[in-house]
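From the methods appendix. Each design record in this collection lists the tokenized structure first, followed by the designed amino acid sequence. Records were kept in a plain field format so they could be parsed without special tools. The example shown here is representative of the layout used throughout.

RECORD:
FOLD TOKENS (260 positions):
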């Protein structure tokens, strides 16, 4: 049963990590509902690595091209600068506020529910009332806009807000079209999630023990596979229907949590 729950949680992590629905909140709620205990957060930290590697595998050609081009290619240098500038605000906010938020808000289902609903409402408003897009290429985001999107990403420290949701809303407010905003959130996810993994592993590594190895491995593999599968269909849905389906899902889940 433990291995079955580990597989289910891995799937939940992978499916929700890059959708604007908050993977952190889904995991926190799912673990409570399933009665799953995760000493030191080791399982959660390690399956997040599976999702990280999935998005890096999908964009492996882009990553390799940027790394090769850094010494001499202006486009590769500009792309790297864009991502780094967008990444910095989350580092600062995480170091200053991360421990406080985890110790207070992560224990409150009410706070998660409110964040779900508020995020859904904001997403609907931005879809309908946001500025008209003038940029359709996520690789060409100006540095000043990238910084603004990075500031929006700091909101994702609050469980229920969603890292991808915050960056996508920020991207649309910075006049990226829907698909470009979603793809930029993928680019920004790579350094952000790697940094979060390294930071959280400090406390969790003592709990990555041999008796939990298979359990963690199952969750890791399922997170990798499900994240690998969901990204391209997500972009297709966004191009066809926008973010409204995800916004209404957030509002519905938030209301259910409040009632519960």
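DESIGN:
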């Amino acid at each position: 049963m433990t291995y079955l729950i580990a597989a289910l949680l891995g799937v939940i992590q992978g499916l929700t990590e890059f959708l604007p629905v908050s993977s952190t909140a889904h995991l926190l709620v799912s673990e409570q509902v399933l009665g799953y205990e995760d000493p030191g957060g080791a399982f959660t930290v390690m399956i997040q690595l599976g999702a990280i590697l999935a998005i890096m595998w999908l964009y492996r050609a882009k990553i390799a091209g940027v790394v090769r081009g850094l010494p001499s290619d202006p486009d590769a240098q500009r792309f790297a600068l864009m991502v780094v500038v967008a990444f910095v605000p989350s580092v600062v906010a995480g170091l200053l506020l991360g421990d406080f938020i985890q110790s207070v808000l992560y224990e409150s289902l009410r706070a998660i529910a409110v964040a779900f609903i508020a995020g859904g409402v904001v997403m609907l408003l931005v879809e309908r009332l946001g500025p008209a897009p003038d940029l359709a290429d996520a690789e060409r985001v100006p540095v000043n806009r990238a910084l603004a999107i990075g500031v929006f990403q700091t909101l994702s420290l609050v469980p229920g807000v969603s890292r991808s949701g915050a960056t996508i809303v920020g991207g649309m407010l910075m006049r990226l079209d829907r698909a470009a905003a979603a793809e930029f959130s993928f680019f920004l996810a790579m350094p952000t999630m790697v940094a979060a993994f390294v930071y959280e592993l400090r406390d969790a590594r003592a709990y990555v023990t041999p008796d939990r190895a298979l359990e963690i491995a199952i969750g890791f593999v399922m997170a990798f596979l499900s994240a690998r599968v969901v990204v391209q269909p997500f972009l297709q849905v966004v191009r066809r229907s926008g973010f409204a389906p995800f916004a209404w899902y957030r509002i519905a889940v938030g209301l259910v949590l409040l009632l519960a």
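APPENDIX NOTE: The chain has one domain: 2-259.
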